[in-house]
Amino acid sequence: MKKIFLIILIIGIGIFYQAAPIFAQIGISYSFDYIGSYAHDEDFGRQIDTTEIGFGLGLEYLRQIETIEIGAGIEWQKLRGFSFSENNEEFGFISGYGMGKFYLREPDTVSYNLYLLGRIGYGVLIENQYRQKTGGFYYAIGLGAKGDFEIFNWIELLYSANQAMIETDLNLKAFFYNKMSIVIGMVL
Questions:
Q1: Which domains does the chain have, with CATH numbers?
Q2: To which H or E segment does residue 15 belong?
Q3: CA-CA distance, 167 to 133, in Å (whole number)?
């Protein structure tokens, strides 16, 4: 299922890229994940804990239609550790997603413009402890501002969640990761 989804995502991005007019844009983003928590199911219940601060890089392709930008992107999270782990365990996700930015005002009427942001996609878990792992559902919601901020073109406050399955002692268990991020980006 994961391979089929990734193939469909790649084909969709290719079709979108070919069909997009000249005014579409490609952007690169950098995220600072300042609050994070994870949860995974154990035999005795759900274990919940915090994670270390993390960083990520993203690449987005967006097309503007009046007060909406739609597109697709990919985000890579640098491996981060668990706050209370004694085994130097680290994990991260690579997420592919479709997205929309919904502007609160007409884009050309102000020097900066606020927008609501939504992403939905699939994230692949990357880590070094478990024998088998799968990816799962990814989503994000947030608030952003686009304008000319000297070095970058947009800034966002973003809540996102990833889920996956991991194998521990021959049992598949659910793994959830939630984070709050500050994202800055620039148009290439």
A1: 2-187 (2.40.160)
A2: helix 2-19
A3: 6
